[in-house]
């Protein structure tokens, strides 16, 4: 199969998003995050490393990772890869919720995995070519994929703690969405608590218990993601990158960067450019 190098982000023509993973060129890290949609990463070439709820998974070609709604995950892409990502709105599965708008999919080695990979590859190829009637064909393949998910991968016996965790992350998602839009501004725990009507102590505990990291770490990682891209893709001064991404100065940026990557931003940039 031949793949386009263009990232595809469909809007109105199909009821989900399908695109080539942005970390396809390697040397890429997506920090811990979560979202409402169901996400599938189908790896066709190269390798990917996932952390889902603190567990590590290494993907090889022909394998996919299924990430549930509000499942905390991070992705490491050290080398070039060809990965197709599907983001499926949670409402797609509305008829199959267990309780409190909750649905959970397991993913272990199954006979259907090969069929899922073929479906995703065919969907992408059909969509990329955009021949007459492509939307109909892609949607028919998509609903076959949904059928496999709800009949072969869905777990109907879920415990109450998992449902509670999902509910709390829904509330936390409103806060983190605000943080993502305002990461470059002053976002102290006190100011954020006032914005959303929580006490700083309660908000801090929410992050620690349900996001499994403290508030400061989440904010630093969010800023670091943007700063990392600027460091790799621009020739801006390190101090300028620090300030425009919410760090108070280059020293604080360097401290966070070194803790995460084991070297200073200047050392990383020099190594990356050689």
Automatic annotation (TrEMBL):
<dbReference type="GO" id="GO:0043565">
    <property type="term" value="F:sequence-specific DNA binding"/>
</dbReference>
<keyword id="KW-0804">Transcription</keyword>
<dbReference type="GO" id="GO:0003700">
    <property type="term" value="F:DNA-binding transcription factor activity"/>
</dbReference>
<protein>
    <submittedName>
        <fullName>Transcriptional regulator, AraC family</fullName>
    </submittedName>
</protein>
<feature type="domain" description="HTH araC/xylS-type">
    <location>
        <begin position="173"/>
        <end position="271"/>
    </location>
</feature>
<dbReference type="InterPro" id="IPR014710">
    <property type="entry name" value="RmlC-like_jellyroll"/>
</dbReference>
<dbReference type="InterPro" id="IPR018060">
    <property type="entry name" value="HTH_AraC"/>
</dbReference>
<dbReference type="Pfam" id="PF12833">
    <property type="entry name" value="HTH_18"/>
</dbReference>
<dbReference type="InterPro" id="IPR009057">
    <property type="entry name" value="Homeodomain-like_sf"/>
</dbReference>
<keyword id="KW-0238">DNA-binding</keyword>
<keyword id="KW-0805">Transcription regulation</keyword>
<dbReference type="Pfam" id="PF02311">
    <property type="entry name" value="AraC_binding"/>
</dbReference>
<dbReference type="InterPro" id="IPR003313">
    <property type="entry name" value="AraC-bd"/>
</dbReference>
<dbReference type="InterPro" id="IPR020449">
    <property type="entry name" value="Tscrpt_reg_AraC-type_HTH"/>
</dbReference>
<dbReference type="InterPro" id="IPR037923">
    <property type="entry name" value="HTH-like"/>
</dbReference>
